[in-house]
Design brief:
8-stranded mixed beta sheet; 53% helix; 7-stranded mixed beta sheet; 888 residues; alpha+beta
């Protein structure tokens, strides 16, 4: 006879024994005494109503009795009840440990799988928490806004002119203050000299109020004073804590000392705290080592749009209100000041400005790791379920001996929680290492990356995942106790295994794994294809075998002629070195800084703000050949292009089409310089910004005709490795450039790679998750098919004995495997379509439904399913009928 299945509620499994059960038993006993006394009085001839009243009178007031019992029960030692419960827990733990030790292979696999899943989950959570969820590390960061200047095309963004910034600060009623920094600094733009040793560091010029505005207080010294922020004042600098420790040995007496910076004296006025990481927030991939004062004056205003601005909203003012006010103010300032650049303020929350670009990528990673955790739970739940099916006889014996079903369920959860706890400990250790490794990666230019760390919320996340995974993988085994104890004891495991619900449940879990793996494979395929489109974009030059270093003159040049002699000597010495094929100089490198002017065709009248915005480069002769930039028409710059020969320029193809769409650009005049400049060359377009951006207008000036810039980037093309090339160049330039740094050489390929690094970061992680999901799905398919073959050994033996061929047996099992895979893939494709929409903002050059990505994922998963099912199918086809029938 089959007894009805009793499934205890999860909440009852780990309940601490309380007073409620004891109170219920006491109430039952009181009612029993009253009924017996009432029946006795009725038998003696008393009326039923009187008998009940008399019984209660003799027994005493029931309410008082309950109170007395409750008081007695409350006086019972709580520790005794705790000891009873803890003893049960101890027994469950000992039994679970013995069981897991007997099955070492399962325990090891489960802990390793959970460790990877939880380690990945916690690491991604640390990234999301540090980069998205935590507020910016500034005072009252929610009121900070980023103020940019919309370019004439209505899409691009410019910086802001100093005069406009001063007017906005004085006249805005929405902002309590403004601060900013000079936006066109570059890596290693300052040379720090100590004796014969020269090291290059990145110097960022900021407004006088920049650090108080952000709430950053130096750990030593002070911030800038008003006098130090005047134009022409002596240099005062603030060091970052990292530079202070690395270069000055954490000398606390550094404040007030004078150092030589860019061949001029400078005074160290303070050291900033290590918690302030300017580069991580404002310029990922471009480190900042020290800070100087940027004067807000007429002289700096004449430099054009140079300031990157941050504003602070007044209390109660919304971003929309500030945006409306500054838009109106910008129109007024532009109209009233025709000699200034145009001003079209764009106001966004600073948090959104910094985090917005990579927010979709991080949520994509969070979604990917959630899918991985689902696969982990499904895989281990399937394995646990298979183990519980194999232990049905054990469970039946325990039930027959009086064990409660809730105790068996609790035992299953205890085993699962032990496994998940072990995996969580290992996964947490992995996440600590991975998080620390990621936070120090300089190859990925992600804002706030240095803030990623393991903290209390990460630990809470690990504990929560551990418990959740333990409950998830133990749920099905906990609910799967034998329904018919006698039948299970009679037939053993065969009777239990014959339950088709076992196979259906495990098949559903494996199909879920395949579907989830399909989602990750399609997502990884979309991201990889998009990344290929990005890195295959035509750069316009050949970065391979190119290395660069900043070159400083030993002293300032009195005139352009002296500067020309210096740079000519530098190039002459480098070009004759063995292994060097070409060398040139440039003020700005691709992907490392931009400066733009309004450049138009001479004689053409433009409306204000409509003159084409053009990126400006100052280069030496042989620059185009060194960089591998093709000259489409005209000639290269030469030694004859001097100030006396008349100003000349080279324009790129985009600017040539913009200014002279129906004319030959060669010989045309531009208004790029006072008096005009003649076009002598049209060169190929070069990507100087993001790889995904279209080509922009560019104009090149010969260095021989431009004022002294003080320093330039030496670009060398050669066949030697960068290290050897740096040593050779430094040796040959020692007589003319003794302050050339020893270790600041960079490969131009590294610059290209750094631009693509955020995409590469996401692609690598999602692809890793997809490979792990594919492996788990393969193991799930293999385990399910292998288990089915084992349970059907007798059936297969009978079929072979009746004449079925080995090929037919294999085909039958593989067809069942393909049916399982096809069902999972159908569900996976639907889920992948939704996941593709999440990836839309990360894709470039392809749509969310890319046929190649989907077909590749389907082919890979079908192939993996066939391989996983082939080994059990081969084993089934080799079953000996006589052995199968005898064992069956």
């Amino acid at each position: 006879m089959r007894t009805p299945e009793i499934r205890p509620g999860i909440r009852r499994l780990f309940r601490l024994p309380g007073r409620r059960d004891a109170q219920r038993e006491a109430d039952d006993e009181i009612r029993l005494h009253l009924e017996l006394r009432t029946q006795q009085l009725i038998a003696d001839g008393m009326a039923p109503q009187d008998a009940r009243a008399e019984a209660e009178r003799r027994f005493g007031v029931v309410h008082d009795a309950r109170i007395l019992f409750r008081q007695s029960n409350e006086r019972r030692d709580l520790s005794a009840r705790l000891r009873d419960w803890l003893e049960d827990v101890r027994q469950d733990l000992r039994y679970a440990i013995r069981t897991l030790r007997r099955d070492v292979s399962f325990t090891t696999f489960a802990i390793a799988t959970i460790a990877f899943g939880i380690g990945a989950s916690v690491t991604v959570f640390s990234l999301v928490n540090g980069l998205l969820l935590r507020p910016l590390p500034f005072r009252d960061a929610r009121h900070l806004v980023w103020i940019s200047n919309v370019a004439d095309d209505g899409v691009s963004e410019w910086r802001t002119q100093v005069a406009h910034a001063l007017d906005m600060r004085a006249r805005s009623r929405s902002l309590s203050d403004l601060a900013g920094y000079y936006a066109f600094y570059s890596i290693g733009n300052s040379a720090l000299t100590s004796g014969s040793d020269v090291q290059r560091f990145t110097n960022v010029s900021v407004t006088c109020n920049f650090f108080p505005f952000l709430g950053v207080t130096p750990i030593l010294g002070r911030s800038f004073t008003t006098d130090e922020c005047r134009y022409g004042a002596g240099a005062a600098i603030l060091l970052t804590e990292d530079l202070w420790r690395r270069r000055f040995g954490a000398d606390r007496d550094i404040v007030g000392q004078r150092i030589t910076l860019d061949n001029a004296p400078a005074t160290v006025i303070g050291v900033l705290p290590g918690s302030f990481d300017f580069a991580s927030v404002f310029s990922p991939g471009t480190p900042a080592d020290l800070f100087s004062a940027f004067p807000l004056s007429d002289e700096t205003s004449r430099q054009g749009n140079t300031l990157a601005l941050v504003g602070r909203l007044k209390p109660g003012v919304s971003i929309d209100q500030a945006r409306g006010e500054l838009t109106s103010l910008g129109k007024e300032l532009t109209a009233n000041n025709p000699r200034r650049n145009t001003l079209r303020p764009k106001v966004v929350a600073l948090d959104a400005r910094i985090k917005g670009a990579f927010r979709p990528a991080l949520w994509t990673l969070a979604g990917a790791v959630a899918v991985v955790m689902l696969i982990v739970c499904a895989n281990l739940s399937s394995l646990q379920y298979a183990r519980s099916v194999g232990r049905q006889r054990e469970f039946a014996v325990r039930l027959a001996l009086g064990a409660a079903r809730s105790r068996l369920a609790r035992q299953a959860f205890t085993e699962s929680l032990l496994v998940s706890g072990g995996g969580a400990l290992l996964g947490f250790a992995m996440s600590v290492f991975a998080t620390r490794f990621v936070s120090y990666l300089s190859a990925f230019s992600l804002p706030l990356l240095s803030r990623v760390q393991v903290d209390g919320s990460t630990l809470a996340m690990t504990i929560g995942l551990s418990v959740s995974v333990g409950l998830a993988i133990g749920l099905l085994p906990a609910l799967r106790a034998p329904n018919d104890v006698s039948d299970t004891l009679k037939h053993g495991q065969r009777g239990a295994a014959g339950d088709r619900s076992h196979t259906r449940a495990r098949s559903a879990l494996v199909m879920a794994e395949i579907a989830a793996a399909c989602v990750l494979l399609v997502g990884a395929g979309l991201l990889v294809r998009s990344f290929e489109n990005v890195i295959n974009q035509q750069l316009g030059y050949r970065p391979e075998h190119l290395a660069t270093v900043r070159v400083d003159p030993a002293s300032g040049f009195p005139d352009l002629a002296r500067a020309t002699l210096y740079y000519d000597e530098v190039l002459r010495r480098v070009r004759v070195l063995p292994g060097v094929t070409n060398a040139a100089l440039a003020d700005v490198l691709p992907f490392s800084g931009d400066r733009s002017w309004s450049v138009g065709a001479a004689g053409h009248v433009y409306e204000r703000g409509q003159e084409p915005e053009t990126f400006v480069r100052v280069v030496s002769d042989d620059y185009f050949k060194t960089m591998g930039i093709p000259i489409r028409a005209g000639r290269d710059f030469s030694v004859g292009d001097t100030p006396e020969s008349g100003h000349v320029v080279a324009v790129n193809e985009t600017l040539a089409r913009t200014l002279w769409p129906h004319l030959d650009p060669i010989g045309q005049m531009t208004d790029a310089l006072p008096g005009g400049a003649r076009v002598i060359a049209v060169v190929g377009d070069v990507r100087h910004q993001a790889l995904e951006h279209a080509f922009t207008n560019e104009v090149y000036f010969p260095m021989r005709q431009m004022p002294d810039y003080g320093s330039a980037n030496l670009i060398v093309r050669g066949v030697l490795p960068v290290g050897e090339l740096a040593t050779a160049v430094r040796s040959t330039l020692l007589p003319v450039a003794p302050n050339l740094p020893k270790s600041e050489w960079r490969s131009l390929q590294d610059l290209v790679d750094s631009v693509a690094s955020p995409r590469r970061f996401v692609v690598l992680l999602v692809s890793g998750f997809a490979i792990f999901a594919l492996l788990l799905a393969a193991l799930g398919v293999y385990a399910l098919v292998s288990y089915g073959v084992t349970q059907r050994t007798r059936e297969i033996g009978i079929r072979i004995a009746l004449g079925a061929s080995a090929r037919r047996v294999r085909t039958s099992i593989l067809s069942q495997t393909l049916t399982l895979a096809a069902t999972g893939l159908a569900l996976g494709v639907l889920m992948a379509v939704a996941f593709g929409r999440l990836l839309r903002g990360l894709l470039f050059g392809i749509g969310t439904f890319d046929l190649t990505s989907y077909s590749s994922a389907l082919v890979i998963l079908v192939g993996v399913a066939l391989v996983a099912g082939y080994v059990p199918a081969m084993r089934a086809s080799r079953v000996d009928p006589s052995v199968a029938l005898r064992d069956g």
